[in-house]
Design goal:
- The complex is a heterodimer of chains A (94) and B (843).
- Chain A starts with a helix and ends with a helix.
- The relative contact order of chain A is 0.20.
- The mean pLDDT of chain A is 93.
- With 94 residues, chain A is mainly alpha-helical.
- In chain A, 88% of the residues lie in helices and 0% in strands.
- Chain B contains 24 helices and 6 strands.
- In chain B, the strands form 3 sheets. Chain B has a two-stranded antiparallel sheet with strand order 1-2. In chain B, strands 3-4 form a two-stranded antiparallel sheet. In chain B, strands 5-6 form a two-stranded antiparallel ribbon.
- In chain B, a hairpin with a 2-residue loop joins strand 1 and strand 2.
- In chain B, helix 2 packs parallel to helix 4, helix 5 packs antiparallel against helix 18 and helix 21 packs antiparallel against helix 24.
- The model of chain B has no long low-confidence stretch (mean pLDDT 95).
- The chains are: A mainly alpha (94), B mainly alpha (843).
- The interface between A and B is medium-sized, with 40 and 30 residues.
Chain lengths: 94, 843
């Protein structure tokens, strides 16, 4: 499970962020509260990504497979961080 | 070396062995795996046969749906044509879309997986071959009956996404819509069965040493496909169930005048419908990635990035469903979120395209038929992707929505992303299953006709759409400047069809199915499907040390053929394969694989009969078929989960493996967990429907059933779970006589029934009826789902009792009991959540 968690951490956080935004947008519509919640969720999820990034960088690979998992994890976390910021942007623009 | 299961990796160094193999070993292997002959071929379950049947059937539906498209193009070539009356045209476009999506595209990608995966992973077969056979026959028979509805004027006519209120009883009073709802409903069951097979196959039957980083990129694509199917398909299964309940019993899920909402259908449908596009595209992308590397004669550039792109696509595709609903009046902020996600999903697709271009750039590509189809597909897909980004932008989508621009966009994506790669795959992998490869000359002609025909057909449709022609109109008036582009599109459609016809001629001339005298690795592929094979797949199962083992070790094919690796013969005298660990692919145990059987075939026929007869309202024959289908499934299961006399066997070079294991490491346990995820997703989507209707139509809601009744409901479910777990625990006790596991499990099922009965009684007592409102409909739908789970639990209890009476529930652990216990525990958990959550909201 640990390997899968590391491999998919970034994408799972992105998913949580997206569905949380969907719920916020559906319940509070296009209101200042929805924008504030979007900002808060975006910061929270970016923080979670940062935490996993630190963990992934500290993870010392022993085998080729470990190195592979680490590299996929790091790139996935980086891409997800950008995606989360991109996903939160509509709250500032609309 | 780190290990996942305690397996000693130094044992791999014993391979390839050098001792000569015993005389008669190969002949014995061939005898065990030989295929049935004559009419008994219907009972075949081996992936080579089922895979070919599956591919052939899916291609047949491609041709049938293509013919419908040609007739529609003739109708639209000129204004005011009278070839197809309006009603028939509606049935044609509905059947074209439905057949292409449900009977061609998804089955085809699964079919190619069934055919290729075992060979690519060097497994003897997929882990549940009888399930594959069942899925195929149910799909094929049901699909043909579904298509035949067109000849009786009974085909669905509400479009492939079947929006209510068009498809509600008021506006579609006949049984046309029911054909879609019931026909497609059970074809989805086939898709899910295939997904379970694929996920367990990829994660648990890889060749030893094939760690995740060495797994072929196609296997990654299929793994993501399988996961996407089990997450996405439950949504449309629930949607079809709810719409059928509304039509049959007047439960108003989608009727806004009684607290339902037509948009709920769109949410449920598109939560499945958009990932469906990637369910089709990802496996094709996996095929392309394999072929590009072989054709460019170099390893795939950016392999890791492509794997990450597959994973990312799998996740992001679930966040874009509402971009089909931009014109329905969603909140602006929500639209913004979905627009952003829709643009973001183009990034992983772009990664794949650039990776393929880079691979061609650094390699030494051969410009043969497969390469042409690959390049044609890439060009076409890029155009479709770019127009996809255009319609992800909301203001543009408002203009282009439901116009021919969308028809052009989706065909560019689907033909470029799936159809051209499929033809490339046919040319590339035919030598693996045929005595002769397909013709290069005819292949190039077929490609150019198809590619030119595709562009001529669909490029002008962008303009037709921008000029304002809506989709799904059976004719148009002259003088609106749509004539020229429509005529060009119609001419292009026949060019495309001519290309397909040429391909069929090529197949008829060259394709001769074989399992052991194939044309071989003529394109010099580097992965394991190009090992010499028979019906048993590779003679011996190699230890994998790289992503392209045949390129790294040119002697591998010879060693495998000579039986110098694992499992060079049959260790138990039965069909078997090695089950390996999910991450590092360490050998764990020997799985005994069931052989040919008539029961999956009969079960499929009766399943199809149940649904089709139900559609035409022949209730007695339908329920008879339903009962017979259940009997056939139980009879097929009766032969499984049996121990063999050898507790452990030598799988080669002294590597000893057990022949029977239980618990979470077994393939059966994994399949049950995946099945429970499917059931859980149906439940989650039903809960979504419940809370969604409360959110938009709360004025129709009454007070919920009294919470005090939970004092009966929850303990009943708790008792069910506890008794089920106790039955598993008691099995380990050698001297248990009276409270046998069968009796305890039966009590657990009874407790489940008591739980759901109490819940139902509580709601009936509250005065709420399902026809009254969206609340009533969703509450009783949730309860009905639970009743279904309990019914299966009771059936399992009877089955276990029967096995127990024959001494087949062996101590101290037994897989059949384990899996049934999982079911009851899950059913108890779902029942408890239903009881609590339905009482949370109300007036």
């Amino acid at each position: 499970m640990r390997t899968w968690a590391l491999l998919l951490a970034g994408l799972v956080i992105w998913t949580v962020h997206f569905f949380a935004l969907y719920i916020v947008g559906s319940i509070w519509l296009t209101t200042p509260l929805a924008r504030a919640l979007t900002l808060a969720l975006t910061l929270l999820c970016t923080g979670a990504i940062a935490m996993f990034l630190v963990r992934a960088r500290r993870y010392l690979p022993e085998t080729a497979m470990d190195r592979w998992v680490r590299s996929i994890s790091l790139v996935g976390l980086g891409v997800s961080a950008v995606a989360i910021l991109w996903q939160g942007l509509p709250a500032l623009l609309i | 070396m780190r290990t996942e299961t305690g397996f000693d990796h130094s044992l791999y160094d014993r391979f390839p062995t050098s001792d000569p193999r015993p005389e008669g070993e190969l002949e014995e292997l061939e005898r065990i795996w030989c295929a049935p002959k004559g009419w008994q071929l219907l009972t075949a379950v081996n992936n080579n046969y089922i895979g070919i049947f599956y591919v052939g059937a899916a291609f047949l539906f491609f041709l049938l749906a293509g013919i419908l498209a040609l007739v529609m193009r003739v109708q639209l070539a000129l204004p005011l044509q009278g070839i197809l009356p309006q009603e028939t045209y509606n049935q044609f476009f509905t059947m074209h879309g439905t057949v292409m999506m449900f009977l061609f595209a998804v089955p085809m990608v699964e079919a190619i997986g069934v055919l290729l995966l075992p060979q690519m992973l060097a497994a003897r077969d997929l882990p549940f071959p009888r399930l594959s056979a069942y899925a195929f026959w149910a799909y094929f028979v049901g699909g043909l009956c579904f298509f035949a509805s067109l000849f009786f004027g009974l085909a669905p006519d509400g479009g492939w996404f079947m929006y209510p209120p068009y498809t509600s009883l008021t506006y579609s009073p006949g049984i046309n819509a029911d054909f879609w709802l019931l026909g497609i409903g059970f074809i989805e069951i086939s898709a899910i069965a295939g997904a379970i097979e694929i996920i367990v196959g990829v994660l648990r039957t890889r060749a030893p040493g094939m760690t995740l980083d060495k797994m072929p990129v196609y296997a990654w694509a299929m793994l993501v496909l399988g996961v996407m199917i089990i997450i996405a398909f439950p949504s449309v299964i629930l949607g079809t169930l709810l719409l059928e309940l509304e039509r049959a019993f007047n439960w108003p899920f989608f009727d806004p005048t009684r607290g339902g909402d037509a948009l709920l259908w769109q949410h449920l449908f598109w939560f499945f419908g958009h990932p469906e596009v990637y369910i089709i595209f990802l496996p094709a992308s996996g095929l392309v990635s394999m072929m590009v590397a072989a054709m460019a004669r170099t390893p795939l550039v950016g392999h890791n990035l492509i794997v990450l792109a597959f994973l990312a696509t799998g996740f992001i595709s679930f966040g874009v469903w509402a971009h089909h609903m931009f014109t329905t009046g969603l909140p602006n902020l929500s639209i913004g979120f979905f627009s952003a996600a829709s643009m973001a999903v183009s990034v992983p697709a772009g990664i794949q395209i650039f990776s393929w271009i880079a691979t061609f750039a650094v390699g030494r590509p051969r410009f043969n038929a497969p390469t042409l189809f690959l390049l044609g597909g890439m060009v076409t897909f890029v155009v479709g992707g770019l127009t996809g980004v255009m319609v992800a932008m909301v203001p543009f989508d408002w203009q282009a929505h439901d116009s021919y621009f969308i028809v052009a966009h989706l065909h560019y994506v689907l033909l470029g992303g799936m159809v051209f790669p499929m033809f490339a795959a046919f040319y590339y992998w035919t030598p693996m299953t045929s005595r002769h490869p397909l013709s290069e000359r005819l292949g190039k002609w077929a490609f150019w006709l198809m590619f030119a025909g595709m562009q001529v057909t669909f490029w002008p449709m962008h303009l037709t759409g921008l000029m304002g022609m809506p989709r799904r109109v059976y004719t148009y008036l002259p003088g609106r400047e749509w004539e020229v582009t429509n005529m060009i599109s119609s001419v292009g459609a026949f060019m495309l069809a001519a290309g397909v016809l040429l391909f069929l001629i090529d197949v008829a001339r060259s394709f001769r199915f074989t399992t052991d005298h194939d044309a071989g690795n003529i394109y010099d592929g580097g992965t394991l499907e190009w090992l010499p094979t028979g019906l048993y797949s590779a003679r011996s199962i190699p230890v994998v040390k790289s992503r392209e083992p045949l390129w790294e070790d040119p002697g591998l094919a010879e060693d495998v053929k000579a039986g110098r690796y694992l499992l060079p013969g049959s260790a138990t005298g039965l069909r078997e394969t090695i089950v390996t660990s999910p991450l590092l692919a360490e050998p764990q145990y020997l799985q005994i694989i069931p052989g040919p059987s008539v029961w999956p075939f009969l079960a499929a026929i009766f399943t199809a009969g149940f649904f089709i007869l139900l559609t035409i309202q022949a209730y007695t024959p339908s329920f008879t078929c339903g009962v017979l289908a259940v009997v056939c499934v139980l009879r097929w299961l009766w032969d499984t989960d049996r121990r063999v006399k050898e507790v452990t066997v030598d799988a080669g070079a002294g590597v000893r493996l057990p022949t029977y294991v239980t618990g979470p490491s077994t393939h059966g346990w994994w399949a049950m967990i995946i099945l429970l995820i499917v059931v859980g997703m149906i439940f989650v989507m039903a809960l979504f429907s419940f809370f969604y209707l409360f959110g938009v139509q709360s004025q129709f809601w009454q007070a919920p059933a009294p919470a005090g009744h939970l004092a009966i409901i929850l303990p009943a479910y708790l008792a069910a779970a506890g008794l089920a777990l106790l039955s598993r625990r008691m099995l380990a006790r050698e001297k248990t006589e009276h409270w046998t596991p069968g009796v305890l499990y039966l009590c657990a099922a009874a407790a489940l029934a008591a739980g759901v009965g109490a819940d139902m009684w509580s709601w009936i007592g509250s005065g709420l009826v399902p026809e009254a409102s969206g609340q009533g409909a969703t509450v009783y739908a949730l309860l009905s789902l639970e009743v279904l789970l309990v019914g299966v639990g009771v059936l399992m209890a009877c089955y276990l009792c029967a096995r127990n009476s024959r001494g087949m529930i062996v101590r101290p652990r037994n897989n059949s009991l384990d899996l049934c216990v999982l079911w009851v525990v899950y059913a108890a958990a779902q029942g408890s959540m239903t009881g609590v959550l339905t009482r949370l909201v109300g007036a």
